[in-house]
Amino acid sequence: MIPLSWFLILSAILFIIGLFAVITRKNSIAILLGIELMLNAANINIITFWRYLYAPSGNLDGIILALMVFVVAAAETAVGLGLILSVYRRRKTVVADDLDTLKG
Amino acid sequence: MTLMQVIFLANALVTIFAALMMVTSRKLIHAALWLVLCLFGVAAVFGMLEASFITIVQIIVYIGAIAILILFAVMLTQNAVDDSYKGNRRWLMTGLVALLALGGTLLALFTWPKVASLSTALTTAQLDIGLIGQALVDPQGYVIPFEVSSLLLIAALIGAIYVGMERKGEEK
After folding, report:
1. Would you kindly state where each structural domain of chain A is located, as residue ranges?
2. ipTM for the complex?
3. Which residues of chain B have pLDDT under 50?
């Protein structure tokens, strides 16, 4: 069947692509997209290790942990997009480089 | 190479391609739609891991809710600039750093002594969704994380509404 390391490699590649998106993109929404990708890559890792190491004994830790990641991701997206829309209404921009009011 | 491996590789290629297109596409709306394809690929990976419940949750929560939320946000901030990689000096540097990080991760993976013993075949797990539901409300199980996550969700809900609210007399 599928070796465990294949899943880990796929997850590593997806995580790196998400990291790349977070660093290079200038639009805040695109940065959020990258964060979603990284969370998904982490979830693949969690489910993979759970499936290969813990599922045979009926342990449910991995599933619950992945569900918590879903909850946090949903909360993060809702608040993040709310912030972005609020900033857009005041400043008419969502480019992360332009939002430097705190720089002083 | 078994059939499952071929399916996995094809799915992985599609997923990685979608992720790359998401990073490189100029128009944000295209990036968001590529992310949807990528999330479907990840859902298929969960399916291959026989985590059926997580597959369904992935499709409902990510593709049904988060992706649509992102599409709405993209459309509401329509005239914001699109990212362009022309003249973006960060692109090359970050690419190098990302590739280095990927190489380091894979090196760590392949030099990990336990990796050979871990690549065992899937064993059939007896898992039905009812067990997950019972574990979530079981005091011996996961009732505390469950309640804490509901608290987090309600806090995020209230916070998002408060942040998104238009207040009277606020300076523009």
Report:
1. 4-92
2. 0.90
3. none
